């Protein structure tokens, strides 16, 4: 019976130590990482041509995607090409 109580006590103490270690990591390391975020250069984007936007994979920001001068719309119906 004492062996089971000792085993449960060791498991409980180990769990508490792991929880405290993780909490300390989140408080000290996580906080220092959030103070100095790296600026995103928007190098990896997905073009959403139907709404003329771009989606950045790194920072999850939606950017405007404007057309060049005299550029045809990216998404149009077939009726635009008929004469």
List the helices and strands and how they pair.
Elements lengths: L1 H34 L9 E4 L4 E4 L5 E3 L19
Number of strands: 3
Low-confidence stretches: none
Helix tally equals: 1
Radius of gyration: 27 Å
User: How many domain modules?
Assistant: 2
Strand order of the largest sheet: 1-2-3
Give the overall shape, derived from the CA principal axes.
rod-shaped
* Topology order in helix (H) and strand (E) letters: HEEE
**What class would the helix/strand composition place it in?**
alpha+beta
Beta-strand portion reads 5-15%
Q: What is the average per-residue confidence, as pLDDT, rounded to a whole number?
A: 77
Can you summarize the main beta sheet? Answer: 3 strands, antiparallel
The residue fraction in helices comes out at 40-55%
End-to-end distance: 92 Å
What can you tell me about this protein's structure?
There is one protein chain. With 83 residues, the chain is of the alpha+beta class. The protein folds into two domains: 1-37; 45-76, no CATH class. It has one helix spanning 2-35; strands spanning 45-48, 53-56, 62-64. The chain has a three-stranded antiparallel sheet with strand order 1-2-3, with no helix packed on it. The protein is rod-shaped, with a radius of gyration of 27 Å. It starts with a helix and ends in a 19-residue tail after the last strand. The model has no long low-confidence stretch (mean pLDDT 77).
């Amino acid at each position: 019976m004492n062996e089971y109580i000792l085993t449960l006590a060791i498991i409980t103490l180990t769990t508490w130590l792991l929880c405290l270690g993780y909490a300390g990591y989140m408080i000290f390391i996580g906080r220092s990482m959030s103070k100095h975020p790296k600026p995103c250069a928007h190098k990896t984007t997905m073009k959403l041509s139907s709404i003329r936007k771009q989606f950045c994979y790194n920072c999850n920001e939606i950017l405007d995607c404007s057309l060049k001068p005299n550029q045809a719309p990216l998404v149009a119906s077939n009726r635009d090409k008929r004469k």
